[in-house]
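Anyone? Bumping this.
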Amino acid sequence: MNVWQQLANGVIMGHSYALTAIGWTLLLGAARLVNFGHGQMYMLGAFVAWFVMRATGMPYIAAIPVAVVVGAALGAVMQRAMMRLTLQQNLVSLMIVTLGFGEIAEGVAGLTFGVKPQTLASPLNAVNVQWGPVLLTEQDLAVVAATIVMFLLLRYVLGRGLVGSWVRMVAEDPKLTQLAGVNVARVYLGVFAFEGAAVAFAATLVAPRTPIITSMGFDEVIMTFVVVVLGGVGSVAGSYFAGLALGVFAAFFGALVSPAYTAAAAFLIMIPVMVLRPGGLASGGGLQR
Amino acid sequence: MLEVERFAVAYAGGGPAVAVERLALPGGALVGVVGANGAGKSTLVNGLLGWSRGPARIAGTVRLDGVDLSALPTHERVRRGLLLVPEGHGVFHGMHVEENLRCMVAYGEAARARAFSVEQVFELFPRLAERRGTMGASLSGGERQMLAIGRALRMGPKVMLLDEPSIGLAPRLVLTLLLTIRRLVDQGLTVLLVEQNVRAAMDVVDHLYLLERGRVIADGPVAAMRDDKRIVEAYLGSVRA
């Protein structure tokens, strides 16, 4: 086994997990919303990019912002549909609605884009980079760079200024936030739009590395469940490091045992962690804040 | 000034929990609303902002300086200068004291002129200045009340509704807090003070409303209310006998 290559694979995979999870991390942190439609939103991001490239001959780089805008719009539509439930923090209904939303998105995508596997062609994928024993593509490097930029940006925005404090206020107590003169529905709108945009952005960068198919949704993002939960609900730094750790684990587990059981192994680790540290790895201990 | 007319709040499936024919807060006055536990005091002040923790139906007119607010959502009423310091949890636990103050911003020129700066809040409540880096969750009950009031002042309120600011505080602290509120009123703020501690409230308010089972059963200038039989019997008791 080429240890360095596996480590590099793990780091890249970890960044792709973290990038795919970032929108959801914020959504979960701010709106307490478990979005079971996250995977289908990822799928739509990839297919919107693929579709505009095929239909208009647009280059890959130009297709990314299109997918991001469509993703943001999708997030906003979701918020409109679920606003009442979100304001009431009706978490069980929200979960089921997001699940339904995902199923509908998958159906619509199948009808629109077909059910055959496709390739989201990125020119960066064809450029190899050799570092000693490690072979990478420029696409891999783009994923890593984009992830780091996105996380730093989110941390910066949340850490200071009014927008960040609105999100943290809504996360803690949306009712009390209204008494501060904040339009809570609009904060939710921003958070949902960010979730949609971020997962679409992740899809345009991560999806070129494998074939895409409209039914890929849920399975494609199964690892992001582990990332957001292990990182600590809504913890930005936590989910970055959880993603990274999970990626390295998955790479070595895949090389040493079998890639087929990676998700099972990840959940096998996650469950005891959840039981012992309900707030996730980033929390101070067994207490959830 | 704040004028309330034919105002009613009902919770799902029930009759009106609060029904108030008329209630007025003249500008620059400190008006008390007192009554027993469950009389509907919190329901009343929350309802004035169209705000409630559970689903509620709210009807009637709420006018602030002649402008009807009844059709506006809570955050719009707040932006127009009607601030509520709710009972119990009025601060964010996950933010430290200074952040709790900084995240409040006044809307509009006039409100900005009235608004307290963070430093002014610290002058009003020096204790908060000492605790400026402490998380909301780690504050004492009294510190939380001061912070919640400070937060409201940051938005430059025209009218401030205070829901039981004295709850859970040591007697000496209650008096200090109420005197601070009185001082704010003397400087021009209009305040509606909800209190269970009737005796303490009567030391500072100008006008008193007595609420029972959601209805106003008596109201008047505090001097007159001091001799009102219902007040004496129910709240002042043997002290005045």
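Late reply, but here is one note on the structure posted above: The longest strand of chain B covers residues 2-11.
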